[in-house]
Amino acid sequence: MSDSPAAPSRTKASSIKAALASVSPVPGAPKPDAIFVGDSITRSFGGLAAVDVSHLEVQRGSITALIGPNGAGKTTFFNVITGFDPPNTGTWSFEGSSLAGTPAYKVAREGMIRTFQLTKVLNKLSVLENMRLGAQGQTGEGLFRALIPALWRKQEEEITERALGMLEQFNLIHVKDDFAGSLSGGQRKLLEMARAMMSNPSMLMLDEPMAGVNPALTQSLLEHIKELRETGITIFFVEHDMDMVRDISDWVIVMAQGSIIAEGPPADVMRNPAVIDAYLGAHHDVALTESGESLTDTSVSLTKSEES
Amino acid sequence: MDWLTVFQNSLTQMIGVQAIIYCLAALGLNIQFGYTGLLNFGQAGFAAIGAYAIAVTVATLGWPLWLALFFGILGAIIFALLLGIPTLRLRADYLAIVTIAAAEIIRQVARSVSLNDYFGGSDGISGKYAADWYALNPLPVGIDTALIRFSRNDLWVVINGWTLVAVIVLITWLLVRSPWGRVLKSIREDEDAVRSLGKNVYLYKMQALTLGGVIGAFAGVIFAVAAQSVQPDNYATTLTFFAYAVLILGGAARVFGPVVGSMIFWFLLVFVGQALNNAVKAGYISSSILRPDQVGQIQFMLVGLGLMALMIFRPQGIFGDKKELALDER
Amino acid sequence: MPRGFQLMTGSTSEGGRMSNPMATGKVARRQGYRRGIAFALALFAGLLMAIAPAIAADAGLKGTVKDPTSGTGIAGVVITAEGDGFSESATTGADGKWAIALPGEGTYTVSLDTTSLPSGLGLADPERGTTSIDAYSGQIKTILFPLGDGSAPAPDSEAASKWSQIPQLTIDGIIFGIVIALAAVGLSLVFGTTKLTNFAHGELIALGALLTFFFSSIVGLPLVIAIIIAVLASAFIGGWVQNRVLWKQLRMRGTGLIAALVVSIGLGFFLRYFFLFVFGGQTRQFDQFAGQAGIEIGPVLITPKDLIASFVGIILIGLTTYWLLRTKAGKATRAVADNPALASASGIEVEKVISTVWVLGAGLAAFSGVMIGLQSGVSWYMGFQVLLLVFAGTVLGGLGTAFGAIIGSLIVGVLIQLSTLIIPTELKYVGALVVLILILLIRPEGILGRRERIG
What we know:
A: 10 strands; globular; C: four-stranded antiparallel beta sheet; disordered C terminus
């Protein structure tokens, strides 16, 4: 259970594991090659501290999971660092450049592309149009250049080409001309992820990629994420599904009540008493502490109650 | 009862100056509201800027017409920036409140006694300020047939007006099929999604507001040139509401929506008005129920009811396809 | 989940629908409601149609020029009406009366030639020697030029006299603020509970005044009784019935927020011209207390009717505040405004709350209309005229918070009146609207509003 079943062909996966092996599993641990570094990031709503992260680093090229009980501030943290929510305090940098106070669209242009907990595909646009929207640096997106199709037609063809390839990869090619609104929940998650990939991100931030996804699609989603790691993309994701976290993550960061309470490889973290405390409350049944499985059960039921 | 005249008048108005003015106002709203989802309720203000730019520049200052046109466009751009900067980051309904208020500010300032020397108070500014342009009219006579009737000058305005409409329709068509238009439609649906993909939503909204406002200013320009006078109360909220009715009737977020909508709107409005008028005069309707001067009120009531009914039952317009429309999504 | 069932929460502001709480269909009861609604609508239409024949008249302007001290008419005063190529003058007769026939609809400027006045007399307010009026054919408008002793404030004492106006303007502003606040509470509560930005709210103001006019001046009831009946009738027809027949149905259909906003614009437009149709284009005074003299309280001049009406207005606002803060229903209302999904889940009957809010809002708006009617007369257009100021007050205080709306409205009222110290009186509303835009620039969430996520 402690070792995730990484396929031998996945060379990046093993090298990242090796790199992270030397990192001490404590909150705010420094990483050998951090792509994202955040310091004293706080965000409070009406006196209630939703996020209070003193230090956090994300290893380049890794799949890093951000977990924690409901209301731990995970999504708020995502919103803050992607520029969707203003922090009270804090600084953070991505690939060495500071991003605090940067508007959301500029954060995205820096290469931090996010998805949303409630999928934000554009229902009234076709799947292919959704994909095209993801591409960066489009000449035809300028008001005046848009008036002269000759200026952007060639680029549009290249973008379409790339989009079709991506749709092929994500098994969405057969629905390319459908309205995105007609897709199933899982297909929307895939589309949102594929669209984010159109932006050529260096870090892909997924907010609960598994929520509401049909179990039949879960496995293919997981494979996609692992394949993305092989292309050198860093993946930072929020998830409630502990099976998924255990399966694919190289590193797990645990938040509770706005702060980071634990960090480490998935298996270690799930045995950490502080983490189990956070999930079950301080006065849990002692017998439960020994078992990682019970933790999974709890989180699954939490996820369900949230959806209802 | 003279049905032929009723029909002639209705057909004439269907392609007449009023139809052009409201078509232009609605073309602007189509970019703002139809494609981007921006609730601009101050289109009358933009039109007023276009109209007063012509009147003040030519009649008051005595400068040439082309310069007046330039001032009208510049004024509309400045007005759009003034409205957009405080509100485009806020929820959609704030823009609605601010734009309707701003249009009222313009109207009240224009009709104020203290600025009488510049804007002519509630009488506005009249004068032959497009005389040079009318002098360019190569047409020998107007047109007078059983179906339509225009004077020589009106025909000149109508031909030029619809040409302008055609140019703007072409621009709209090019824009909405471009990547730029794709971003607009995406913003209408979910601006956070667009933001997360690295697009500057604020900038696009500002561009849409400005472009739509400039087109709205053209509506005022045509109004001023055709009427050779500008009166502040022609630019009350009614103009904006009519333009919305036109847009929704023809189908928002459809390139030809405003054109179709404006023609149908004016045909129906004039037809209902004239038919009622005739019916009252001929004694088919007792004047104790409806006096001739109340026909206009009935027309306006029908516009209100029509706008409600369209929005509830056919938000996609009479020809629209509901699947393509995102108006009811927000 | 059916489309309309998505509930709005406080934070997800941008892409929402009208909140649609669990509406349990009880067929038998609904049929009862239907009959009640049909009856109410018939009553409403009947009432308003009854006003119409009473006010049919010819087109034109009329008025009487009176000596301010003796009250007798002054002969030989020249009045001129101009507009759209039309110009016509009239000279007052021995009784001080004058009349001008107008060619038709349009905007006319009516002015009094001060040189034709007897010496020693002048306009009470020199700025009001010229007024602009909108004429509608079929009506005769009465235009009054109040006279004074002609000693308009001398230029050198202008500054001093401006300062001495402050108490009067403040009181006027507070009264106007109460008028706005009464209307703003309903607008704000409806927005809070259903997220509807209601552009037809102004017509509730007009409805209250028009019904009062009907019951007092046409039926002939004493004004106080007429006001009570009119406010109750407005609350029922404009609140309960309107919500039932229109807005509740739209919530059940899952109509989008923007679509609902446009519907409210269409409704307001329809109602305004319906009011014009039945009431005519004139501004009319209630028969009773029409020309009441003011009483002096310290440096302030106020008419007893305004004083009493303002007191009642304050009491109504106070009761609303008490209701919101202390009663179970009021707390439920605030809970729904805060988070309808949560409120619904915790057993609050959201639809019932919304219905209550509509009734309360319509009743308060109706009384606001009565206050305007007492001060400056009743017209078909009066609601839309103040609607933008009501929006200004509401946004200033924070859209969706009732307390914010009250405070914001009072500020707007006082600000409008005090602004006349600096800007021309005719532009005082412009000042308020400019402030509205500035507020949005500086503090978009309003004074008492909670900060929402803004992009």
